[in-house]
Structures are given as C-alpha cells and as structure tokens.
C-alpha cells in the first residue's frame, strides 16, 4: 500500500491557518478555513490534480471559525459530505463559536480583539456525525477520526494507519506558525487540562508526525517535551487559582 500524501493548504499566510488535502484511494479535505475561503481551497486542490467531485469527505476538526468558516461553501463546491463531532454541533448549526474565547496567553488576548473571530459563518449540518472513534475506510483513507476534546468539547484529530496525525488545534506552532517547528498552545483552549490529556493520549499512539492547523508539521518527541513543561505550567496556574476552563 502506497503511503498517503499530505498536502497543506494555506488559508492565511504561508502557515498561519492550514487546511489539509489527504490523498488516499480518494481525496479527503480536513478543515475549511475562515469564511470566504472555499474557492481558495478548491483552487489549491485542483492544482494538485484533484477533481472536486471526487472529494469523499470534508472533516471539520472543531467549532472555531478559522476551521469551519467555509465548510458550507466547500460542500456546495464539491458535493462532499461534512463530518463534525456532536459536541460542537451548536457552533456548526448556528455559525457562531461558543463565547467568550478563553485565551491561552498574550497572543489569544490580542486575537480576541479581532472582530473576524466573532463573526458569523454560514451554518451547516454535518452529514457524518462523530460520536467516537470512526474509521475513514469507507471514504478511501486508511485512517480514523479520533475525538480529542479540550480545545473545544467536540475537537477531533485524524490518525492514519501509517501514523500521521492531523491534529487541528490540539497543538500549534509558536505565534500562530510564525516560529516553525516550535510546539505551543494555540491562542485559545476551552479546557487546557483536557486538551493536554487528549494530546498525551495521541502521543501514546506513537504518531510519526503531527500536522497542525497553525504552522508546519511537528516532531512528536519535541511535542512530548513541550507537554511535560505544559503539565507543570498548568499545575502552577491551577494552584494559583488562575486556570480558566469553560464549564458545560
């Protein structure tokens, strides 16, 4: 079996916001960028020789507007069904994220002022509703969707049989991808402790590479080292009563 091909699809900047094209027996798109990005994503997948009508599935990793913003548009352009986790169904059906955002640091506090993050996207209804681990064999990929809650309640990742992990915002590159290869929190997490637990669960499966929503691919060993430091940081914040978590 030939190795699956991963094609990062830049939605903003070179690596600031990524979607992904996964080329197996059939093509699958992971994430849909910000509102108005559908045609840009479509142009990039066709540039890689993909007939849009061959796309088997559009996987949305979570209910933040820079990941589901153009899902409805991509569905119209390709005809492919959309998958999303049931716990983020509210944002998908309303087109609005759960607010307030909970910043993980200075970058998040700065980005929270950007009105584009508070805009309404076009709503959609996932045709493939994820509740637990879900095989993608029927969609042409030797891979499975893995629930990885914490960034949002309905966050998911895609793990291939070869060990590549398309991780959404489970982890990011520092400064929204401006420092390639350096693991960091994305700007926001609903539940930092739960997200770290999900990250560690995925690392325990020994992925070969982590493909992320913000930045370039990350080395798992470097992410493990970061996760140990993050565990200690969160413990200090919790002890000081400064760890913010979304309830419900």
Layout of strands and helices, then pairs:
Blueprint: E1 5-12, E2 17-23, E3 27-30, H1 38-47, E4 57-59, H2 65-68, H3 71-78, E5 82-85, H4 89-94, H5 106-111, E6 128-130, E7 134-135, E8 143-147, E9 156-160, E10 164-166, E11 172-173, H6 174-177, E12 179-184, H7 192-203, E13 209-211, H8 220-239
Parallel strand pairs: 3-4, 4-5, 5-6, 10-13
Antiparallel strand pairs: 1-2, 2-3, 7-8, 8-9, 9-10, 11-12
Overview of this structure, please?
Helices cover 28% and strands 22% of the residues. The chain is built from 8 helices and 13 strands. It has helices at residues 38-47, 65-68, 71-78, 89-94, 106-111, 174-177, 192-203, 220-239; strands at residues 5-12, 17-23, 27-30, 57-59, 82-85, 128-130, 134-135, 143-147, 156-160, 164-166, 172-173, 179-184, 209-211. The strands form 3 sheets. Strands 1-2-3-4-5-6 form a 6-stranded mixed sheet, covered by helices on one side. Helix 1 packs across helix 3 (71-78). The longest helix is centred in the last third of the chain and has 20 residues, at 220-239. 47% of the residues are buried.
TL;DR of this structure?
The chain is of the alpha/beta class and 248 residues long. It has helices at residues 38-47, 65-68, 71-78, 89-94, 106-111, 174-177, 192-203, 220-239; strands spanning 5-12, 17-23, 27-30, 57-59, 82-85, 128-130, 134-135, 143-147, 156-160, 164-166, 172-173, 179-184, 209-211. Helices cover 28% and strands 22% of the residues.
């Amino acid at each position: 079996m030939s190795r699956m091909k991963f094609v990062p699809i830049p939605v903003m900047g070179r690596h600031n916001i990524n979607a992904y094209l996964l080329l197996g027996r059939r093509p699958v798109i992971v994430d849909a960028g910000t509102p108005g990005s559908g045609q840009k994503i479509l142009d990039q997948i066709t540039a890689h020789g993909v007939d849009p009508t061959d796309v088997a599935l559009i996987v949305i990793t979570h209910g933040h507007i820079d990941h589901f913003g153009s899902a409805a548009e991509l569905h119209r352009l390709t005809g492919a069904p959309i998958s999303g986790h049931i716990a983020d169904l509210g944002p998908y059906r309303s087109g609005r994220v759960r607010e307030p955002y909970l910043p993980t640091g200075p970058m998040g506090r700065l980005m929270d002022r950007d009105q584009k993050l508070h805009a309404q996207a076009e709503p959609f209804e996932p045709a493939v509703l994820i509740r637990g681990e879900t095989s993608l064999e029927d969609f042409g990929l030797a891979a499975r969707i893995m629930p990885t809650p914490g960034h949002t309640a309905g966050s998911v990742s895609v793990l291939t049989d070869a060990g590549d992990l398309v991780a959404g915002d489970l982890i990011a590159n520092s400064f929204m991808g401006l420092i390639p290869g350096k693991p960091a929190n994305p700007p926001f997490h609903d539940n930092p402790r739960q997200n770290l637990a999900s990250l560690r669960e995925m690392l325990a499966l020994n992925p070969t590479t982590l493909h992320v929503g913000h930045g370039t691919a990350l080395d798992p060993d470097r992410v493990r080292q970061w996760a140990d430091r993050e565990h200690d940081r969160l413990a200090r914040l919790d002890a000081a009563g400064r760890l913010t978590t979304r309830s419900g």
